[in-house]
Amino acid sequence: xxxxxxxxxxxxxxxxxxxxxxxxxxxxxxxxxxxxxxxxxxxxxxxxxxxxxxxxxxxxxxxxxxxxxxxxxxxxxxxxxxxxxxxxxxxxxxxxxxxxxxxxxxxxxxxxxxxxxxxxxxxxxxxxxxxxxxxxxxxxxxxxxxxxxxxxxxxxxxxxxxxxxxxxxxxxxxxxxxxxxxxxxxxxxxxxxxxxxxxxxxxxxxxxxxxxxxxxxxxxxxxxxxxxxxxxxxxxxxxxxxxxxxxxxxxxxxxxxxxxxxxxxxxxxxxxxxxxxxxxxxxxxxxx
Length: 288
What we know:
The structure is a single chain. The chain has 288 residues and is an alpha/beta fold. It folds into two domains: 5-137, Rossmann fold, CATH 3.40.50.620; 149-285, HUPs (Rossmann fold), CATH 3.40.50. Helix content is 40%, strand content 20%. It has helices spanning 17-29, 47-69, 87-98, 120-126, 158-174, 190-208, 221-229, 254-258, 274-280, 282-285; strands spanning 5-8, 33-39, 78-84, 102-107, 133-137, 149-153, 177-184, 214-219, 234-238, 265-268. The chain has a ten-stranded mixed β-sheet with strand order 3-2-1-4-5-10-9-6-7-8, sandwiched between helices. Helix 4 links the parallel strand 4 (102-107) and strand 5 (133-137). Helix 5 packs across helix 6 (190-208). The longest helix is centred in the N-terminal third of the chain and has 23 residues, at 47-69.
């Protein structure tokens, strides 16, 4: 059975981007969808009021899901739950309970679930998520996914290798080309540049030789990666663990980076790629 996709939906705002991304990925993989909304309810005069409030928010989330599904051409099952409490905890707990292949959250100017700084929810979800986390840029719609190329921002770390394996699986499952980037800056000398190129080519040959992935060295740091993302369907990057992310690739936190990219960002912790790989490429997920 295909692992489900868990989607974070804001119960009080019309941000359809996470739903659009999750539904499109479900169509590609056949993964069932679990939509999760979360809210804070304080100063409550009684439990009945909280229950009524929760039901009203659940109705709004179901309406948003129905709008994204449109004519209902999604074969996979869709379930909705709305809970009171921390949105990051709700997503992590649901993903763990269901054995999810991916969590999808939004990237808006106020965070994915409400009054939080940009990127905070994505980063809190990542800090303990059992699977990769995709951050959908604001304004994403159903035309997404037509570029035909998946990008991976690669560094020679455990998180970087996990990101490469996840990106290769997604490219296979989507029938897309694979582009693997190493980002350098003006201070990178020629010998370091050559070593980076050699490492990149060996990594592609080992993980994605069947895809004919293209190695690309990007000079210019994060701005160069942001510019390259405008021609991609997805950008995949790794992260360090444990603890809150420590900027391993472009020196940008995932939420901040996601808000500037021209495509969805998928962040993969070291050793956390298998749930996603099995969702997109079941044969590659089998033990050798």
